[in-house]
Amino acid sequence: MTETTSGPTRGSRAKGSKANKGLRIERIHTTPGVHPYDEVNWERRDVVMTNWRDGSINFEQRGVEFPDFWSVNAVNIVTSKYFRGAVGTPQRENSLKQLIDRVVKTYRSAGEENGYFASPADAEIFEHELAYAVLHQIFAFNSPVWFNVGTKQPQQVSACFILSVDDSMESILDWYKEEGMIFKGGSGAGLNLSRIRSSKELLSSGGNASGPVSFMRGADASAGTIKSGGATRRAAKMVVLDVDHPDVEAFIETKVKEEEKIRALRDAGFDMDLGGEDITSVQYQNANNSVRVTDEFMKAVESGSKFGLRARMTGEVLEEVDARKLFRKMAEAAHACADPGIQYDDTINHWHTSPETGRITASNPCSEYMHLDNSSCNLASLNLMKFLRDDDAGNQSFDAERFAKVVELVITAMDISICFADFPTEKIGETTRAFRQLGIGYANLGALLMATGHAYDSDGGRALAGAITSLMTGTSYKRSAELAAIVGPYEGYARNAAAHKRVMKQHSDANDAATRMDDLDTPVWAAATEAWQDVLRLGEKNGFRNAQASVLAPTGTIGLMMDCDTTGVEPDLALVKFKKLVGGGSMQIVNNTVPKALKRLGYQPEQVEAIVEHIAEHGNVVDAPGLKPEHYEVFDCAMGERSISPMGHVRMMAAAQPFLSGAISKTVNMPASSTVEDVEEIYLQGWKLGTKALAVYVENSKVGQPLSAKAKEEKKAEEPEKVVEYRPVRRRLPKGRPGITTSFTVGGAEGYMTANSYPDDGLGEVFLKMSKQGSTLAGMMDAFSIAVSVGLQYGVPLETYVSKFTNMRFEPAGMTDDTDVRMAQSIVDYIFRRLALDFLPFETRSALGIHSAAERQRHLETGSYEASEEEEFDADALAQSAPKADQAPQVTPREEAKDAKDADRTTAEPEAPTPAPREAHSSTELLEMQLGLNADAPLCFSCGTKMRRAGSCYLCEGCGSTSGCS
Fold first, then answer.
1. Quick check: helix, strand or coil at residue 393?
2. What is the mean pLDDT of the chain?
3. pTM value?
4. Domains of the chain (ranges plus CATH)?
5. In degrees, to the nearest 5, what angle opens at C-alpha 130 toward C-alphas 124 and 131?
6. Contacts of 188 (CB under 8 A, 6+ apart)
7. 676-698: per-residue pLDDT in tens?
8. What is the set of active-site residues?
9. Is the distance from CB of 445 to CB of 377 less than 8 angstroms?
């Protein structure tokens, strides 16, 4: 809970009118005569951030000043990301006070200069209230504000941009340039390529047009180059194509084909790791792709009828396709590689406030900002947990009144920022100043729902989320209408007044029609209803200051700044979290929301304690002592023993969407068992439920399309295999045999392999031990090693095993800790690649495409994998005198047991070394350890920590970096 002063709730309220210019600001949290900084305890801390993989220091600044209630993570992120000035110089910011003052005083000054406040006293209250809200982590502006405002560099305040491109070479080249400049500044952009004529149409010169897909290659190469030129994150971009574009099938297939290329090149020995030097040869990897579908198309899918693909220049139908087959292709591609997503054009434009100026054709990279071409949106998000109240009797309520007052305060500040903001292009600046699009949103919804005893996928959870969203947007437009009375409506309002007021009525009607569920959401709905009544009344009188007010963004870095447990509209990741400690070190804790939820559900303190202990040990609530099974769903999370169903995510998006100006940044995670039909159903229901955009991600789907891979395997099976003759006589190993024990990690799963040889030469047995004892995987690996060992002793060549078992794909899979085998498609894939490197001659394994890291490097330098004679001599001498790198010294397994049962066992079990406890560096890695699974998330380029999903982007809990706009 946020710290508040005693007495009645106070708020900033527009008292002004055209006759009485300027806002009269009332206090919400602050005390007259006392600065917010003087009400908290400050302390000095040292910020030292390292890359845990190699121990190098990424960032260091000592003696920074923060409130004592800020977490280590929040302090680290703000210090490293947002403090300005060269590290180690007197000009470097070293206190949160300096950061807040730099931003808040700039907002106050601009507000005074542009006539927002009735008096200097009101301006001072505005400054203090804004400072208090940031200081106490009640809200945060998006990252560009903290980067740029109050500095000597351009005052860019927006992270979200939409560009446009027309069917001319000049416009296409402008697109490349504008996009590049936005990427250079660390932001992202989206655009629709549907104005570019298709490859099936003619140029004025008579030749065939290239089509938008070909021009995507140039833009993708530009994005990749700018990223590799020094940025700490990938260039974020969204590319949209209309479903009636004649090149839509080629657009749908772009990433699927590139995934096939990644797999083929990796199997051939190329470095296709994230950030690997060979990955740059793969195209279309720097963008999210989405198909813009219409109601006409979706109805054709339902009816199974034909759908026309239209020429860009004339509008005539060039080709009719089966709508269901085209929809199926979209689902197959998304199932295989997560692209393309889907955007619902008619739904988006049904809620468009400015249609007379132009249609909404595209979105920003994360899909939450949708408005006019060549426009931008600055974002800010509120921390919902700061508005949850517990009274003395233990009853909970959502502080709707104070929430509304903070929304008014933040919307005022966001609108002021447009007065002084700079923009990356002149066209974007003109459109943004003319329409003044804002994107207020929230974070910590998942934590709030759990803390109040609501399942994320429940009618009660959706009702509370919808009520809060409606109150937020209604209050925002109310304040926008109040600002219009003081500083005027947006320039484009007069032309779009009828449409804007129509959309306000749509929001209000949706609010009135919503279902009220319980004592928590009903008062919020009542406050929202009052706000929308004011919107309709004041809007009719004054117009509106802003064409757009709200979105639900990923809230990546700023979510960490506010110490939020959950980002944007997402549910909780897991019940047990990773927490950094002051002075170094870390610990795992059960979410603070869990005890709150149990108290709300009526459990007694001793029951709560027992359940929390169970969660701490097991990571889930299944079979927790005293917990009723009907309450399990309250603790369902994004991952784990009880994960939320894909449709649960879609239904939550649908509950919030009618009360948002823009859309929602969210990816619907689907289990690996999901089918193409499941993806089709998600896309179909997203349209029916009224969402504006959807993206799906099927676990473990990012390398190769399953159908294509299967076809290749069938083709390979038809080829004649080399026949190897051998005598089926078992050759047992002696009691004492030389061996090598190798530790390995594949996709987070740890294990040990002991490979024992015959004294004269040749591999004779393999023993595998997984660190997760007693698991099914450990048992299967044990049985598998016995079968392989028997085969080796009967004369099956190792080469045959290697050719059969490499490239076999199943979980765990992913990155390894072996420099020679950086990526493995499974533990079996890794094992036989390692055995081939250790026991097969160079010529044999080279034919199988298996090379060591040194050999691959030699190939790059000399064009040859083979070592020189001198190098071979040195390598042989080293091999005879010392154990191999990254491997334990040779060990002799204990002698086989003498009883008959153990005597038949062909693999003598060595005393497996006790694995060192794996250290988690984020909540995602902690969850992997608890569940024994591999989360589908990239590693952070800055610090090496495994990231986690935030909306449709990824967020690093270690350093705050994101993979998209923040």
1. coil
2. 83
3. 0.76
4. 36-151+377-561 (no CATH), 161-350 (3.20.70.20), 572-643 (no CATH), 738-903 (no CATH)
5. 90
6. 159, 160, 161, 182, 235, 236, 237, 238, 364, 365, 366, 964, 965
7. 999 999 999 999 999 999 999 88
8. 364, 366, 368
9. no
